[in-house]
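User: What would this chain look like folded?
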Amino acid sequence: MPSAAAGHHDAIVVGAGHNGLVAATLLAHAGLRVLVLERSAEPGGAAVSAAPFPGHEVRLSRYSYLVSLFPQALLSELGIALELRPRSISSYTPLADAGVLISDDAEGTRASLARTFGHAGAADELERFGALTTAVARRVFPTMLEPLRPRAELERLVGDRSTWETLFERPLSEALERSFGEDLVRGIVATDALIGTFASLEDPELRQNRCFLYHVIGNGTGRWNVPVGGMGALSGALVDAAVRAGAELRLRSPVGGVQADEHGIEVRLADGEVLPARHLLWGAAPAVLAKLLGSAPAEPGPEGAQLKLNLLLGRLPRLRDAAVDPRQAFAGTFHVNEGYEQLQAAYAQAAAGHIPELPPCEAYCHSLTDASILSPELRRRGVQTLTVFGLHMPARLFAGDHRAAKRAAVAATLRSIDSVLAEPLEECLLRGADGEPCLEARTPVELEAELAMPGGHIFHRDLSWPFAEREEDVGRWGVETEHANVWLCGAGARRGGGVSGIPGHNAARAVLEADAHRRAGQPLGATPSRG
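Assistant: Here's the prediction, encoded as structure tokens.
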């Protein structure tokens, strides 16, 4: 039987990803004795930087690569002064010999849309829809660091029934088809609904709507920022904050078992060592926790749906659109074959078990906004990084002969990119000291093996609504499990997903609240006496 009295630690955090480190820092600041266990040789989880190409000094954000959801107030509370640099270019989407450049320059954006489509209607439509999502972001995002509100209260907060129905109750396809006349513009907006989520835009379960919501509410603006120094700079800052606060970090410490009862928890490491504590904060996938606790998962296994390519280029490729500089086009999100109908066709092909003929994907060049990830020599030579994120690449496509499927998926994605460029992307690729092209690919299979993400799902499981869907969850933090002293603090918590720190914050708050009620001799949910 677990025994709190026998434990040296008040809380054990499993997983030194960014959320686990946030939780550990906040708990240690509150005076708890905290131990963080990490299975790999370095902390950071999916928010790490790496130098994968022999002979080239570059710090690539290997898995996750941008930050939108991490609240500025939380970074300040943690004492982290990391610079998150905004991108002046939002996106570029090629179309034949033209394209749409969307940027902070409103007049320039309108001119680009008018040049491409021959009318001003598309710009008006984008501005109206952008105003709608921004209004929702300003109202909803501050609630992410609060106890869960009931659905009806969040609807009242949004303040407009039509907007609520558009984003929270009806498939996103209806809003896109009603709001935009141009297929390409529908697709530009739709991609935010499909990052890491395998769903049709018409999905009646609204998985695409939930994904879209999380991608447009970050910090009340929905803007995606570049972590200066790469994702590893964020992870490093979080590690420093946790250690300064007094948390203990143990690497190469995979967990082999978990026991929990009313007395506390015991974590058994793979080498047999048993560590007792009062609380367990779980930063890995909920499905892994359920297996270790011996309970059946409450839902089907998660399935990731993306292909991630990391590339190092000697120069940026030439565009067919002579009016746009490649340094502009690749500084934001470079949309590739992501028109509305193209997205739907790719989903249908993947759902039928086939790699899409022209996989929709998007590319982005970190080094155009933050050259610090390159060595001085690479900067002098004009070398650039390129991150490509492929949509509708579900884990099922790689379940057989993984190597063959991976080669086919990479080849199809490169063909898709080449179809919108003026030259093959491979002609711009550098080669490493080993003579191999500087191209690294990660499918859901690698993500599961390297990051312990079941099915390679980057959010650990499908994203959930940011409100309480059951009456008994109102006022809770969305991190609770069936065990009163076991908490979710990773991407699989309600209001998880993405690089946000929000689940880590909410798990820490839930633990501190539970301890306050315990000290007051009150059941959880009561208000502790003051004084």
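The radius of gyration is 23 Å. If you want, I can go into more detail on any region.
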